[in-house]
Amino acid sequence: MITPQSFLTHRKSLHLKIALAFVLASTVTFVAYDPPGGRNGGTWVGYGLGGVATALILWLMWFGVRKRVYTSRRSTLRGWLSAHVYLGLTLLVIIPLHSGFQFGWNVHNLAFALLAIVVASGMVGVALYAIVPELMTRNRSGERLDALFEQIADLDAEWRALAKEMPDFVAQATAIGIEKTQIGGGVFRQLSRRDRRCGTERAYQTIMDRRNEITDSGQRRRLLELITRKRALLARVRRDVRYGAAMKAWLLFHVPCAFATVATVVVHIFAVFYYR
Amino acid sequence: MSEKLDIAIIGGGPAGLAAGIQAARRGLRHVVLERGEIADTIFKYQKGKLVMAEPPRLRLHEDLPMRFEESVREDILSRWQEDITEAGVELRKGPEFEVMSITGEKGDFSISLKNGQTLNANAVVLAIGLQGNIRTFGVPGDDMPHVAYQLDDPAEHVGKRVAVVGAGDAGIENALGLAEHDNEVSILNRGREFDRAKPANRSKMEAAIRQGSISHIPSCNVDHFEENCVFVQTENGDLRLDTELVIGRLGAIPPRRFMEDIGIQFESEDREAVAQVSATYESNVPGIHLIGALAGYPLIKNCINQGFEVVEFIQGNEVVPADEPVLREVFGDLEGSVNEIIERIKNTLPLFASLTTIQLREFLVDAKVHRVAAGEVIYERNDFSDSFYSILAGTAAVSLPVDDSDADSDLKSEEKRERIAYLETGDFFGEGSLMSGRRRAGTVSASTDCVLIESPRYSMNRLIKSVPEVKRELDRTYIRRRLGTVFPDSSQADRDELARHAKIMVYRQGEELFKEGDAPDGLHLIRRGAVTISKMRAGREVTVNYVQAGNYVGEVAIVDPEARRTATVRASVLTETVLLPTVAIAPFLADHRGVRVEFDRRREEYLVSDVAITSQEGAPDLLRTLMDAGFGEATDLLVIDESLCIRCDNCETACADTHEGVSRLDREAGPRFANVHIPTACRHCENPKCMTDCPPDALRRHSNGEVYIMDNCIGCGNCADHCPYEVIQMAAVDEPRRPSLLFRLLFGMKGGGESKTPGTHAAKKAVKCDLCRKLPPPRPGETRASCVSACPTGAIVRVNPRSYVESIRGGEDTP
Question: What ipTM was assigned to the predicted interfaces of this complex?
């Protein structure tokens, strides 16, 4: 192995091929078997597909465990993720086949709806994994995050020193700009594009509005240049945080929905056999 | 009439004191003459300096009541003071007891002292070491009060401006000590580098200069002193430095004049030459014995043992040397006494003929003796072992692939044309990997039953450094054998002619072997290290290739006598080459059409591939980034493709989980170029710098290349200081309480357990990547390393430098 290889093309897309074969085989079986009562979940093909799908769901859930086992040398996590993605997608076909395309507003379809949400969020995850790393690299342009933070701290120190010699409103704005600037926070704050409460932004507005009150033009220029540089840096850091958060946030949706799916599948199976 | 002594011991260091104690115990009439303090060299160490007890395997004579173990300067000095008082040693201490001359012969020596007194002695023991004559500035004003030649306690100086002159270990240690106490320190260096210093000191100094805590004045000479200042000449003109203290650490003058006046002969004009002594430490002047550093043994333990032994020898007693039991164990079932075996080794192995018996004994303490049955394999081609073998009896067969450039290929040796060479009793092998740090070039097996002496890399390196003749012999043999592999089809006579002209060249990191446009000086066979090849393209230097030890460079231009160098070749790490000068290689090429055709073929290949790489956007810069990150000496490099990396840090978590909760990998750190990111993780270098100075020898290299740390690490931090890539950390490794998998699943705790709070009671040890050697073997084609197998997206890979560069040069699948 010399060059990195994406999980999507792991072992020449082996799992994609397996998934396609699986879908094809299921479809052929579904079409070939036409029982007197019509195609539905209650036929032997229906039970068979249902059983396979249940097993598949449990196996997909197992990914969460496998991810945390670091000592196995029989397989790589990349292989597992590749299989997880392609085989997970097959459920979108297998389950409608299992039901004989019978849809309705009931607990059985709730399970499928939840599953569809899980698969859709997984697709979002795959898309994010494909797009965001590149954006993140470009935004960082080879610098470490803590180096960016250091640069911000340096600018703050310079700003504070400069403000000492300037009118009071500048000193007040500076205090807000330095102390009330926050990076990150909760998930939504991390994900949001703009931070309206950002101290630096508020200080910038105040200073821009009242910049004519600063009489020393050299000082004014230096101050504005400094704040502009800090704003640009902040934007970069926040973008970095946003990208990082985006790659994790979808999981907050994907994983709980997956557990909910399993719960409804249990209800579905119980209901089917109990009320038969 | 002056007093008549049995023994006069000159020098009150560890060797002289030990001799004095033994003489007193034997009830001999004796004196120990010391013009300074007892153990003056140690006395002049900085306060609180740790004195090491090396080598660890050597024991002290049990009968001698002189205590010594690793401890701080003060403890050692006070113990020795007690020991000599207890034994009743006649110590004459002070400047008036400096010895001016020694005349006479065995049984009647006259020793005249500075105070005019003359002593008579039957035998003389010279144990004056090498540190006695401190070199002074010898310029106007060097006796002024602010000029000193030693520093007792850096803490006595705070907030001063100090200039330290001298870039050896003593100068560096003083400068660092002073800088720690908020002094404004400048270090004045005659050269530009600190290459005379121990690697650990050197890297600490370089770090201090980088951080600005010490300022470095390179290439300078002290001109004269005036009150509270020093005048220096630099490359950029004269400089006046205001300073309250100048410390000169200019080294010592070996007392050669003094010894030659006595009649002691030296082997060579070499400044570092040692006077020869017999097995009883007697010099060529009967009755005068040399011990300690004078006899070539600067280590304290050796000095103490020799002090004991020399008194016994003078008395005519037999002594079982302190290393006798260790050597007996090393020799195992070899026939004869230890002395007989040592004699046999000396007579059988010409390489060691130039060693004194003491040097040979010391060298053999670390060796292993193997009996190998006929047909048995000693090592295989492509193994990563690096020890050195000498054949004490028997014949060994070396099989080498014929094409030198295939040294890295994974093809089985049977599939290639092979060249077999036979080595007889007295020969040695394994010197190639010892020097280059690379894999074994050939397979060696025993043709008859053999007795072999295996010496580890570090003891061989020590020997090469201390005995120039060994290095010369190794170089000669290396050149002869290397020419045999590179030009297998030429006659021995032609190769001998080439060898006669061959020169060993050493290039520091970044130094040029030759420049594009130069007239060719010859062909370079790279012996160790690696070089980058770059060309000027549109006014910019572009890196097009890199070549490792085991290959050659410079063949393109020497084919044609009118030609100029077509590329610049630069050492990317410390590099050694065998240079075959044009005067020798040009006629050789004229006579050997086959070689010439091969060179022409390679030239055309390069033309094509160099164009290929320069036309790919970013590829040369990527190569440059890789070289800067240590690619040139790596055997295994961790690379992340940032366009696939989702920053989940599962690699770090996996690493921590595999290694007692401490990750040896820092994903975020390390250089980047475009999408390629080289995280801070061990490169498993060919010549691991971390291994240079490990007191317990805890750093080892497995035969598959991985460099790992054994459990006997003492946590001294030398390896971490030496590593230029900062991949070794000092961490308190304490098996953390690890929550169960269920707990981790429910509460989302990472696999590393409580790694964030390292155990307070666990001692710090060095930790680094060991390529997960404790894990079960992987499936074929996959890696054992858990960082790689735990990456969900396949962004992180371990690459073999050579094939990776091939893929960049070829332009396939470049990340």
Answer: 0.90
